[in-house]
Amino acid sequence: MKFISQHEHYEHLRKKWIQKQKNILEKFWENHADFLRHLTLGGLGSLVILSTPGMKISPSIQKENYTQQVYLDTTLDKRVTLSQSLAPNLPDEVTNLSPSEETKIAGTLSDKFGFQVEAEMNGIRLNRTYGLIGGEQHLYRYPGDTLLAHFESLSDWAMFAPAGIAPHLGAWGYFAPSKPQFTTEEKNMEKYYIAVQTFLSPGYAENPQKYNEFFKYRKMLIVNPKTGQAVVADIADAGPSEWTGKQLGGSPEVMYLLGLGEGPRKGGVLYFFINDPSGTIPLGPIEPKK
Amino acid sequence: MIYFYSHLVKYESLMGSLDELELSSSQKNDLAQIIDTSLYHMILDLVLSNLSAEDKKQFMILIHDNKNRDEIMGFLNEKINNIEDLITEASENLKEELHQDIKEAKRIKK
């Protein structure tokens, strides 16, 4: 009986494109092997070469890869240390923190990341600082924006496009008035956005304008206490609704960086305001400093 | 991932064509990574082939130090004539090949 694959398109393309990749890499090495070998001895070569299945690696580059592994091990150690530091002050369930738990955790996070984080700022706080985060969709960034325009590589498209794009705008509208005026900073604001329950913030109903001005693109440190993964994100939307049982939402990129990008796309996270008046702390993934 | 040349490569037509194939997430991811890696090394080859030995080293330091796109492209624009056009042309040629391959794959009868 003839075996018929259910993935013929994929298998055909994969075979063809692996060969194309091999040809490109062979030409690359043929043209630049001497230069890169020389550079690797100075510690630079392998870090710029993307990993490739089946790629032959010279001994000098293997040695450099060891250095990369040491770097990775150190980063992972710091995450584990962070997770272990947080554990004693976390409740068993993902529920609101007591004042003393909140103070201790804010202190730990400030110490580990090297900048001040706070549960309350300018007299304003959210309803929670420890809650369940769920996956959100991408947001329209300027008039005429499309889902596909969000991605700068095919790998990013493959990973983050399936989340889709929300039919509504974020809480503050478009990030930029037009495509020509759309900046890299605004690109990062959508990429690393979170939605929080602004409307449940104590005192919100009495003065929504003041509270919205405070929350608009406010930077927050989001930490997965189980893994030590963390992101500097900004508030770009309001939600989710109380009935969902979740307390905040993360963009597809934020969820991925917190280690919650697959499976149920849900998990417990700590979230605190970042005290950054001069705007020096960049949005995106962040590692504990110690 | 953002590469120093990402703003010069338009991926949307490829994304659309791959979407039409109804691939699973892992299959899309796999093919996407193969294309990204191929394009990266092709452009790296192009850039290094047009730099002097000293400038090659300087370029690699910029990449290694994870400098922002503006700084890397500023350096390349200074050192290589029409580098942005060269990168765009090379990526368009590769994209054209990939589109042809996808057309060929679609002709395969199940």
Report on the architecture of this protein.
The complex is a heterodimer of chains A (290) and B (110). Chain A has helices spanning 8-40, 59-86, 99-113, 154-160, 184-191, 208-215, 252-257; strands at residues 117-118, 120-121, 124-125, 130-135, 193-196, 219-223, 230-238, 248-250, 266-274, 284-286. Chain A is an alpha+beta fold. Chain A has two domains: 6-78, no CATH class; 91-286, RlpA-like domain (Barwin-like endoglucanases), CATH 2.40.40. Chain A is globular. The N and C termini of chain A lie far apart (61 Å). In chain A, 37% of the residues are buried. Residues 50-64 of chain A have low confidence and may be disordered. Chain B has 110 residues and is mostly helical. Chain B has one domain (12-109). In chain B, 73% of the residues lie in helices and 0% in strands. Chain B contains five helices and no strands. In chain B, helix 2 (25-49) packs antiparallel against helix 5 (83-106) and helix 3 runs antiparallel to helix 4. The longest helix of chain B has 25 residues, at 25-49. Chain B is elongated and about 55 Å long. The mean pLDDT of chain B is 91. The interface between A and B is large, with 43 and 49 residues.
